[in-house]
Amino acid sequence: MEKFLTASSALDSDMEQKFGVLLKEHKTQESKSTVKVIMWKGSKIPVENKQIQLALEKASDIKTTLPSKSDPKDKLSTLTDLLKEYVKASSICQTELLSNEGAKLRTVNLDRKAEYLKLLKLYLTFQKLKFKLDRGQIQFEELLSQVKSVGIQAEEEKGKKKKKQTKVALSSVLTSLESLMEITQTLKLTAEEVKDNQTSTEIQGPYLCYRTLRCYYKADGFQSRAEFAKAYMLYQLCTKLAKDAIEASKEGYLLKEVENIAKELPKKQYKAHAMALMDQNTKENTLNKSVAGLRIEPKPLLERLGTFNWGSDTNLSEFPIKMKGAPAKQLYFDVAYHSIAFDSFAQRLETEKKNSAGLLSSLGLW
């Protein structure tokens, strides 16, 4: 038994050595070969172009340094460098794809290369969007902290300068949120194209959070401009959006922000409602003074909170805009119209009457 165990252990060690030698040989062959292979979503993508290989190598080196970056500014610059490499690789890939498609004589190799290039383009686009989203998130966090600090200062020191600073900060936050919404939607479409259901479901939470935050800060902007009716409508919409966003999101910065604004929403909504009614009341009073013989007696504010007359319709536009289908061509309608078999109207056609003798018939009066 002991002899058998020693023989088997010796055999195992010998096999390990041979396997190690084979692995080294395989690695050296891979390093010597000009074609690099990327594994992505269960498929192998060969990368023949040396410039793309170099860009991807640089990108992987930069990617390894990302976890060590704690300062937001350092992280932003690292992400920008990373994006540059992916953009460079993507543009080279696009040029190769166009030149491959432009070849007159088609071969099996060219068609296969076109498939790989399309897959590589999708991979690069996916990576680019992911890191663009990370960079946009950091920029948004910085802008949001600026908005909060400017808002606190504006409350403490009232003045035109502070109000202007608040407006500028709010507009930059809204622009950032719109950009993030666009990126998330494009990323979702790319994930659906490669049948990556996990990413498409994961991205839904952040998208709803961005939409909720945009609606909230848009309402704040209307409130600051004394457009209370619009602010009230947007706060109402924001309450529904916040509920959906909290249900769809996981733990993180965005979820905390949405939860915080969800707590503030009832107060802001009631305030906007009351201010809108008061604004309507002042308009009615000015009408009483300007128009002779007109007398509008408003009810007290508490009695009017149950109902609210808008005065004018407030239109809310969705962002991003929903896609509309192209209008059908008129030619198709003409063809369809002429191909329909209508009932015969021969029985209803008027026939010429027989000429009857007489003066009236000759004159055409009978």
Automatic annotation (TrEMBL):
Molecular function GO labels: 7S RNA binding; endoplasmic reticulum signal peptide binding; signal recognition particle binding
InterPro entries membership: SRP68
Protein name from the UniProt record: BRO1 domain-containing protein
Any one GO BP annotation for this protein: SRP-dependent cotranslational protein targeting to membrane
Domain of life (superkingdom): Eukaryota
Leader peptide range in chain numbering: none
Pfam families per UniProt: SRP68
Cellular-component GO terms for this entry: signal recognition particle, endoplasmic reticulum targeting
